[in-house]
Amino acid sequence: MEALRDTDPTHIGAQTLLARIGAGGMGQVYLGRSPGGRLVAIKVIKDEITGHPEALARFRREAETVRAVRSAYTANLIDASLAAPPYWLATEYVAGPTLADAVRDRGALPADTCRKLFAALAEGLASVHAYGVTHRDLKPQNVILGVQGPQLIDFGIARAAAQTALTQFGTAPGTPGYTAPEVLLRGEVADAADVFALGATIAYAATGRAPFGTGEPTAVNFRAVHGEIDVEGVEPGLAGLVRACVAAEPGARPALAEVIRRCAVDAALVDDPVYATLLAAGAEQERGLPSGVAAGLPVTVGPGLSRGPGGYVPTYVPPRPVAAPVAGASAGRRPSRPVLAAVAGLVVVGLVAGGYVLSRNTEDKAAAQGPRGGGSPSGSAAAPEGGGAGGALPDHIENNSVSRDLWGGTAPGDGGCNLPGEERAEFLVGSVADADVPDAKTATGKVKISIYLKPYHTEKAPYIVSVGVKPPHDIELSTSRPYEHVRDYNKTIGYTSKPVDLADKASGGSVELTYPDDFVMKFDDYQGSPRTFPAIPLANDPGDWTVLVYRVRGIREYSSIYCTGFPVK
After folding, report:
1. What does the alpha-carbon distance between residue 235 and residue 232 come to, in Å, rounded to a whole number?
2. E strands, 120-267, where?
3. Element (H, E) at 564
4. Residue 327: predicted pLDDT
């Protein structure tokens, strides 16, 4: 990261520019700050690129297609301008070094750390693959080691059928040493190609050396097709799993679930002491940034958690009116569609080295259905869905967002949450208690949750809320329990209740709910089919459970306004 130059703009859209993150074949990437103080990474397309129809079409399509992807392993899309030059995208900024930088500075990572990283990246890829998307350019430079775990970056999404047309412009099909043989020889891109790249990435982490050597790209690619991967000196079990992932035939490579099983990790990567030193080294580098940049960087508040600095005063307020933002662009508002940036890498390291994601089926669906949610890229039109403010009371809210809110305490309602609400709730009050023993210090079978507006509130109808209850860990939907081999903290909005208008006289200003009876999880799968899952029993996941109240404006548009929780033993 470096200081801005005299030729750089001071603002992009509503974002104040703070520093340069990097540059690539298609544009410049900046660190910026939103009017509300949120750090963002902004990629601005080069002027000479804007006149190329194929590149511009791909860039626009990336922002639209990414709405079909919901993953906790990518960054949120904040805003975009795609109607006229300058074209740009902004995502949340993920603080932390890339895996390439971390290994370059520290050297090879221990086998135990590599296994945890292996499992975490496999889970991230599986999350993206579930939406019909293949990364296609996974490599150490495209993995950011964040405080909440590794983040996959540098995505570019295109129709699989248009693969050739959209990858000829100044790019190669992936990165030498990380591109699978079937891609190099036959142009076949599927999920197994990402497994190959995953194995090569871990080989680099475990050895500190290029997985198939260095030299001319053609020579490196030849070794990737016909040679052996370099895992000399790597612990035998880890080396064997790496070799399995880079098998020449796609069908011989293990599925990502099998990779996770074979890693057999028993602790989260973010709790690994070596990983912590990598994060600390990255933070030390950021402390050397210019004061205007450092003032906006997040600060660590606990293991795996961070927040922005308090007392921030906006340095720039956009004039009115502003162009309609991408869903999730307004400060304190959750994205109204899963705009979790498979596009993150476009912005954070923005196609610096080329290589694109292929969407096997989401692009055609997006084109047929049109944009979804309460916002759209600047210059496009999309109306809010599902009622809310000014519309009918929605039947549910869709689990289409990442939530990093976590509660910790010793008794229901005590303790606190790691993050403030996205919006203020001046008149809202809530309580949580065990349904059978209200004074119990821990919950057992069921929990009573009460939410109400104070009698003297001044909120006008509609004031629609939904309550979300989050287990402590990510839940495998097929088993209703935490993943067996990797227990990561829960990044969903939780199991949610039917929305109710607290400002409507019919509601009496309050709602009382019972978990798990009144809660479900609803979302569209990657084929657009609605899916509903009942809330899991408390006993399935002991630990600290989080309760969130969401202000609802539509099925896919909501924001957190209140947080509490309860322990389960």
Report:
1. 9
2. 133-134, 143-146, 149-152, 157-159
3. strand 557-568
4. 35
Judged on CB neighbours under 10 Å (0-12, 13-18, 19+), 453 is: buried
The angle subtended at Cα 158 by Cα 155 and Cα 164, nearest 5°, is 115
pLDDT at position 59: 67
Tell me, what amino acid is at 299? V
Domain 407-568 belongs to what topology?
Immunoglobulin-like (2.60.40)
CA end-to-end span of the chain: 45
Distance CA 30, CA 23 (A): 9
Catalytic residue among 137, 194, 272, 474: 137
DSSP 287: T
Residues 6+ apart with CB under 8 A from 293: 1, 18, 19, 31, 286
DSSP state letters, 83-136:
SSSSPEEEEE---S-BHHHHHHHH-SPPHHHHHHHHHHHHHHHHHHHTTTEE--
Q: How confident is the model at residue 90, as a pLDDT?
A: 83
Longest dimension (CA), the chain: 75
Helix (H) or strand (E) holding 395: none
Please report, for the chain, the start and end positions of each structural domain, with discontinuous segments joined by +.
Answer: 11-95+291-369, 99-148+159-276, 407-568
The set of residues, in sequence order, having a beta carbon less than 8 Å from that of 437 and lying 6+ positions away, is: 444
SS3 state of residue 58: helix
Rg (CA), the chain: 23
CATH classification for the domain delimited by 99-148+159-276, as one of 1.10.150.20, 1.10.510.10, 3.40.50.300, 3.20.20.140: 1.10.510.10
Helix ranges (H only) for 452-491 are none
Decide: helix, strand or coil at residue 540.
helix
Residue 107 backbone zone (phi > 0: left; psi -120 to 50: alpha; other: beta): left
Enumerate the H helices of 310-452 as residue ranges. 344-348, 362-369
CATH of 11-95+291-369, picked from 1.10.220.10, 3.30.200.20, 3.30.2350.10, 3.40.50.10730, is 3.30.200.20
Spatial distance between the Cα atoms of 209 and 493, rounded to a whole number of angstroms = 40
Q: Scanning the structure block, which residue is given the tokens 């490196």?
A: 220
137 has catalytic annotation? yes
Q: Which residues lie below 8 Å from residue 51, measured CB to CB, with a gap of 6+? A: none
* pLDDT given at position 527: 54
What whole-number distance in Å separates Cα of residue 247 and Cα of residue 239?
Answer: 12
Beta strand 88-92 with 75-81 is antiparallel
- Kindly tell me the burial class for residue 107, based on how many C-beta atoms sit within 10 Å of its own C-beta (0-12, 13-18, 19 or more): exposed
Token digits of residue 494: 């939780």
Q: What are the DSSP E strand ranges found in 436-529?
A: 447-453, 464-470, 475-476, 481-482, 495-496, 500-501, 510-515, 520-524
What are the residue ranges in the chain where pLDDT is below 70?
Answer: 24-26, 48-51, 54-55, 58-71, 76, 155-173, 282-391, 485-487, 524-528
Q: How far apart are CA 326 and CA 346, in angstroms?
A: 15
Give every CB contact of residue 366 below 8 A, 6+ residues apart in sequence.
Answer: 64, 65, 67, 68
